[in-house]
Amino acid sequence: MKVLGIETATMTSSVALVENGTLVAEHNVKVSLSHSERLIHTVNRILEDARVDLESVDGVAISIGPGSFTGVRIGVGTAKALSYAARKLLLPVPTLEGMAFLFQEENALLCPVLDARRGEVYSSLYRREDGMLRQILPPFCGRSDRVIEAISSSRRDGERVVIGGPGLPLLGGFINETGLSSISSSDVSLPRALGVALRGEEILLSGQSADPLTLVPLYVRPSDAETKLGRRIDE
Question: Where are the alpha helices (DSSP H) in the chain?
Fold first, then answer.
């Protein structure tokens, strides 16, 4: 079983191909302008490196957000087009869930964090139990105190808390004060298509998929443009 994974929630464009839980090929590149300029090229490169074509892929897994509004929109749009055109199953994976999938700790509270700007982070909470990743708290957006509150209300007595991701610097002081354990390894320093593809493979095996005509991104909060428009309307 082969799954193509796409991750564009940050300024890193990431594409990966996995087969039966094993990484076949992955390419990560930091984009300076727009994912739209390189994404299809990267997809083609991955397929060429793996010596397969899109027809032999069983599903397309896509990071649906939260993250960069433009990046998520481009990634979701591209995955929907590939899925529809090639008649492949579309496998939506929340960005934070794809990140948490690469955390290897068992029986710990896992907290991936993304920089949401405005001094805020996107975060969510997970646990891996008996080899399965389980969501404890859905994705949310807030400042460090919101993350503290979420962890405090979800943490079991004596449970280790593991935090990682590009939003980690915004929580540095809080981590030092609470003594929580953190991860900053390359596997979780940025969202990667590897996590998206591996989680997508699990979704595929469970018999679930999304309609490429109706799938929408998971933004969590309004965009800056929507916020400004709302303010003008209120005024």
Answer: 39-50, 69-86, 95-100, 144-154, 172-178, 186-189, 193-205, 224-234
